[in-house]
Amino acid sequence: MTPSRKTPAELRSARWFARPDLRSFTHRSRTKQAGFAETEWAGRPVIGILNTWSDANSCHTHFRLRAEEVKRGVWQAGGFPLEMPVLSVGETYMKPTTMLYRNMLAMETEEIIRANPVDGVVLLGGCDKTVPGLIMGATSANLPAIFVSAGPMLRGNWRGEVLGSGSDVWKYWAEKRAGNLDDCAWKEIEDGIARSFGTCMTMGTASTMAAAAEALGLMLPGGSSIPAADANHPRLASDSGRRIVDLVWEDVKPRDIMTTKAFENAVTVTMSLGGSTNAIIHLIAMAGRAGVSLDLDRFDALSRRTPVVGNIRPSGKYLMEDFFYAGGLRAAMARIADLLHTDALTVNGRTLGENIAGAQVYEEDVILPREKPMSPEGGVAVLRGNLAPQGAVIKHTACEPRLLRHTGPAVVFKSYDDLAARIDDPALPVTADSVLVLQKSGPLGAPGMPEWGMLPIPKKLLEQGVRDMVRISDARMSGTSYGACVLHVAPESFVGGPLAFVRDGDLIELDVPARKLSLQVSDEEMARRRAGWKQPESPYQRGWTALYTQHVTQADKGCDFDFLEGTVPTPEPEIH
Predict the structure, then answer these.
(1) Using the 8-state DSSP alphabet, how is residue 569 labeled?
(2) Segment 347-358, tens digit of pLDDT
(3) Can you tell me the distance from the alpha carbon of 566 to that of 399, in angstroms, rounded to the nearest whole number?
(4) What are the start-end ranges of the H helices in 80-129?
(5) 117 with 16: CB under 8 angstroms?
(6) How much is the pTM?
(7) Are residues 306 and 401 in the same domain?
(8) Cis before residue 314, ω within 30 degrees of 0?
(9) Which range of residues forms the domain containing residue 446?
(10) What is the H or E stretch that residue 383 is in?
(11) What is the DSSP letter of 554?
């Protein structure tokens, strides 16, 4: 049975262009003012291209060109493209953290779609928070949408060593602080670690969220793995431009695709790749916009049954370029097809199972066989206990195995400034068995929950050869990072979560196999500490940050704004 298709009169954009009134006269005349003949747009789907290009976001340097390639596809399929810039939350430069602005991009995306005469949208994103921000907004607007990822950059190189952005930064910075790397070598690494446009080429947050978007069904098959500089990437852009026109005629919307099954696929794929811990926060927020319930316990249950088959840094050995040549995400998903809902719908009109049928693995050391996984269970574990009653997370595949069960005395830093001032003090009372604790780094405390969670190893321990320690915070960490870092502790310390009451010398127990994070302090003592605590006042009294601090939720709820969750519709704009 052929699905019904919209007629030109049923297009949303017809409300702007097709009426015999004064306002439509104005819209048509201004379109002609831009140089377009009526035959180029009348009766055609209007496709918004939401472009996060910016000179301040080197990951998206190629998006000016990719937007033109999307337009080419839209024109070829009989649509009318309109490129519209939206906030580019570039990970490198924005401070204190792009996470502070993810919801701003989501709000802008939703409102730009709603306020303009578009029938569908192509979302151009890639650098970490642009993926969830664009998808959250498009899900709330719920017009036909397709996502195009920026793609990973090329492999880095230094003195014959293959470098991975992020992961090798942390590795070699530790060696420099330990006195094992001179300034000349460090400069050479700086010159060789980022060799092209595109996102980090490790399985950091950008690559993780691109894979999650494809597993959700919002990208064309195989699109998330293509390197940014590969000729397949512009072809992906044009293919996506052609496909969005059909999605409009077919009236397939994001929430038709973003079902519970789709989100479970995204979580499972993320776990199978040793993906970023940040994906947990973003997927929870994205699910909330789709009306899907997704909590930390579901993440942990899916992780426990999912083997890690992606041998990609920081958990593994290889980089995204290797992953693409080994078969890419289609091949990786085929490895775990029995764990996926293969009947889930995707944007190309086929099911996930149809999209991965016949996918082959070309390099078995990159995409591992099921019987020889890097880990028998997923890359992220959810922890609970009296130190994290609402949960915390750890990427346990990227830390030293000896620390998966560990009890040690706390060394507490009250803020990041306190950490920076004291971490390399020779008099710091710290040993390799200590547990480093960072407070005031969560959604409200920082604010914005920066990537401070990979606390640096104290210099005196680095000089002794220590390269990993248990570290605990209410912060996030870069998806390219590694180490025994317990993150996203909820509730955060700033609002009176138990993390606020940890003191130097308190024993903390981490037991990843048991999913346990415990502070060995009596309930009575904790009650005394709590009674003497007063919540700090937020210094942010104006602008976006004031709105953020009034409405952001905790990490276990996705750090979305409370008034943006759910699927309550907003009326279409009046056109007068």
Answers:
(1) -
(2) 999 999 999 999
(3) 36
(4) 102-115
(5) yes
(6) 0.97
(7) no
(8) yes
(9) 381-531
(10) strand 381-385
(11) P
